[in-house]
Amino acid sequence: MMYSVDEFRRRPTVxxxxxxxxxxxxxxxxxxxxxxxxxxxxxxxDMRGDVVPVAxxxxxxxxxxxxxxxxxxxxxxxxxxxxxxxxxxxTMILVGVDTENRQLLIYDNRRRPWWKRARDWISML
Length: 125
Ligand SMILES: [Zn+2]
Hints:
This protein is mainly β. It contains two helices and seven strands; from the N terminus they run αβββββββα.
C-alpha cells in the first residue's frame, strides 16, 4: 500500500473505526502508532488506512472475531510513512509484525487476573 501524501489525506482515519466492539463484550478503545524514524506518537489525523472486520466462517453466525488494521502513519517531520499491519482479535491479544526487525509481535492486552497481581504483590514482600 503506497500513497502520495495527498492520497493518504483522503483515506479514512484509523481512529474513526474505534472503539472496536465484539459480540463477546471485548472492546479495543484505541490504536496508537509511532513513527519508525523519530518515534513520535501519531495523532488521529496522521494514521489512516483500512480497518477490516474478520468474521467467523460458519454459516450460522457471522460474528466478527477480529479487525485487521492495514494502515500508514505519516510523519510531517521525517516526511516518511510507517506501515501498520495488525490483527486485533476479541481475545485482546494483538498480533502483528515489527516494522523494523520483521519479528512477530504478540501483545497481551487482557486485564491481568487478580490472582496474578496478588502473587506478584506477595513476592515483593
Ligand atoms: Zn518521524
